[in-house]
Write a structure and sequence with these properties.
Elements (H helix, E strand, L loop, with lengths): L1 H19 L22 H14 L7 H7 L20 H8 L9 E4 L6 H9 L4 E4 L4 H11 L17 E7 L7 H6 L9 H11 L1 E10 L12 H5 L25
Parallel strand pairs: 1-2, 1-3, 3-4
Helix pairs in contact: 1-4, 4-5
């Protein structure tokens, strides 16, 4: 079953990337990838669209053309401005990941670091009447996500948000780094967890209903045995598997990271 799941995931990922940008899975540099029809690839194109998004989001309401532009927002990671560590997930990868999650009508999907809302958006495209719980600390990204999802997105850190009801699934691209003192103070019972990605994964798993699924894009520390809290994570659920993604998967954003 697990091998079948891996194969289906990888096949869908490669098929989607082959259609949208054929070289992203084999190219070591952003310059050799071809532009995507859904995600701007060049720095110049990304900057142009992101600046346009900053103007659109000031409106009181949005038409269909506005929403299509907002969907192309990619954050400012790699652009030497704004939140330089904000790297969004390519849609082809989001679609491949979401396709292996058993989403049903009426399910609640949590994305604790939603960026521009791409994971919940694809979940809604997969099953129309899912319920979305999305959180994003960056105010601009939260507004973008709220607009394209047509739901309230809480512009807070995951530490600041209480998950009052368990969710069916968690799907997210986890940010990396060291937790700040302010964030640690908000969750004193987890003050021993210093890394942001570890905290987000643990709190996410604790927010799941029984038999719920959590899917996380994270760095290699967890799988390489460098995470001090691996056993705590394993105690919160059953590991179905892990997939090593190509380094160039985030090449369009100027990031070369092992995930």
């Amino acid at each position: 079953m697990i091998l079948k799941l891996y194969w289906e995931f990888l096949q869908k990922l490669y098929d989607k990337e082959a259609k949208e940008k054929k070289e992203i899975l084999v190219s070591p540099t952003p310059s050799s990838t071809t532009p995507s029809s859904t995600t701007p690839s060049s720095t110049k194109e990304r900057l142009k669209i992101n600046n346009l998004v900053k103007e659109i989001i000031k409106k009181d309401s949005y038409d269909d053309d506005d929403i299509e532009v907002l969907k192309k927002y990619t954050g400012f990671g790699g652009l030497n401005m704004g939140d330089k560590d904000e790297y969004f997930t390519p849609k082809a990868l989001v679609e491949a990941i979401t396709s292996i999650v058993p989403i049903k009508s009426g399910d609640t999907i949590l994305d604790p670091c939603t960026g521009g809302g791409i994971f919940p958006l694809v979940a809604k495209e997969t099953v129309d009447d899912v319920k979305i719980k999305a959180i994003e600390p960056n105010p601009l990204s939260a507004k973008v996500a709220s607009a394209i999802l047509n739901v309230e997105v809480e512009s807070k850190t995951f530490e600041e948000v209480e998950i009052k009801s368990k969710v069916d699934h968690v799907i997210t691209n986890v940010p990396f780094g060291i937790r700040g003192n302010k964030e640690v103070a908000l969750y004193p019972q987890f003050d021993h967890i210093k890394r942001l990605e570890t905290f987000i994964i643990i709190k996410s798993l604790m927010s799941l209903k029984p038999l719920g699924m959590g899917v996380f894009i994270t760095n290699s520390r967890l799988m390489d045995g460098k995470c001090k809290h691996t056993q705590q994570i394993l105690s919160l659920g059953e590991v179905l598997g892990a997939v090593r993604l190509p380094n160039a998967i985030f090449a369009d954003a100027g990031a070369d990271v092992i995930t």
